[in-house]
């Protein structure tokens, strides 16, 4: 564990730079860069895409923090101001981040004629890759830690060997990012790629949660498993429902122009002769 990467000197003393914060920032940068490259093929202005991403990040952090505070309401009831002290308690929820970011993206894209489904599809691979990078920060900071174990690949956290569940999540997210990029072929209903991302991540989190040191909330299930089950079912329904619709989104890959049929000009003019 290395919660603080280094101390930044300031005129008022040293300021601790957390490992989770550094890798979360790196995750944002990578996600924005990939999303910007993908939306360029849609003809969207790169500057506005960056603005959208920054606003969505703010909304996502707020949503993630609200979700964490609600889940841990008892811990914050006696000291409600701690809910605002994110630099002290780095607790966030990913599903809360998705919801908060989606609301902001919808509001921003609506004014520019960008459909939320298009935005979500463009961002999905970047979100998966960013999630993987953020998991390195959670490992260093000591978040999402696993149960005690004696497997050869265990990592020492809190004085005992544990499952490196952060690395399990990172590997799963990298696989999901690869799957999303691989299936991004052919026309499809807008939003279907994003819901596939949510579905696969919910399945991964549900399974990996069995190795985490989390209290049970509903029978044998932890709170994260309950949330993943609900979100996963919603994602599966949305993915299936959208699959029945007519394709209205082109793949975010560049296509070569098709050759003109005989007797037709490349500019689409009438036949000769």
From TrEMBL:
One of its GO terms (biological process) is lipoprotein biosynthetic process. Its EC number is 2.5.1.145. The keyword Ribonucleoprotein does not apply. Keywords: Cell membrane, Lipoprotein, Membrane, Transferase, Transmembrane, Transmembrane helix. It comes from Candidatus Segetimicrobium genomatis. Catalyzes the transfer of the diacylglyceryl group from phosphatidylglycerol to the sulfhydryl group of the N-terminal cysteine of a prolipoprotein, the first step in the formation of mature lipoproteins. The gene is lgt. It is a multi-pass membrane protein. Pathway: Protein modification; lipoprotein biosynthesis (diacylglyceryl transfer). The chain crosses the membrane at residues 12-32, 52-71, 83-108, 120-145, 165-183, 190-208, 220-242. This is Phosphatidylglycerol--prolipoprotein diacylglyceryl transferase. It comes from the Bacteria. Residues 252-273 are annotated as: Disordered. It is found in: Cell membrane. InterPro entries: Lgt. One of its GO terms (cellular component) is plasma membrane. The keyword Transcription does not apply. Its main location: membrane. Belongs to the Lgt family. GO terms for molecular function: phosphatidylglycerol-prolipoprotein diacylglyceryl transferase activity. It is an enzyme of class 2 (transferase).
């Amino acid at each position: 564990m290395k919660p603080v990467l280094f101390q930044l000197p300031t005129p008022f003393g040293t300021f601790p730079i957390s490992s989770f914060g550094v890798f979360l920032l790196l995750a944002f940068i990578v996600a924005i860069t990939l999303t910007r490259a993908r939306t360029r093929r849609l003809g969207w202005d790169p500057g506005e895409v960056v603005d959208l991403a920054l606003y969505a990040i703010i909304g996502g952090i707020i949503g993630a923090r609200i979700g964490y505070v609600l889940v841990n309401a008892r811990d914050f009831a006696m000291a409600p101001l701690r809910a605002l002290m994110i630099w002290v308690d780095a607790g966030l929820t990913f599903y809360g981040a998705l919801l908060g970011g989606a609301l902001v993206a919808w509001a921003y894209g609506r004014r520019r004629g960008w459909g939320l489904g298009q935005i979500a599809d463009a961002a999905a691979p970047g979100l998966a890759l960013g999630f993987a990078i953020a998991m390195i920060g959670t490992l260093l900071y000591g978040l999402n830690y696993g149960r005690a174990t004696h497997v050869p690949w265990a990592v020492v956290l809190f004085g005992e060997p544990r499952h490196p569940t952060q690395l399990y999540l990172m590997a799963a997210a990298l696989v999901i990012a690869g799957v999303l990029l691989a299936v991004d072929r052919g026309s499809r209903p807008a939003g279907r790629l994003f819901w596939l991302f949510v579905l696969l991540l919910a399945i991964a989190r549900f399974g990996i949660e069995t190795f985490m040191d989390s209290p049970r909330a509903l029978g044998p299930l932890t709170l994260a498993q309950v949330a993943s089950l609900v979100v996963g079912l919603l994602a599966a329904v949305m993915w299936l429902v959208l699959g029945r619709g007519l394709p209205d989104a082109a793949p975010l890959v560049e296509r070569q122009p098709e050759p003109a049929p005989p007797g037709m000009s490349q500019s689409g003019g009438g036949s000769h002769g």
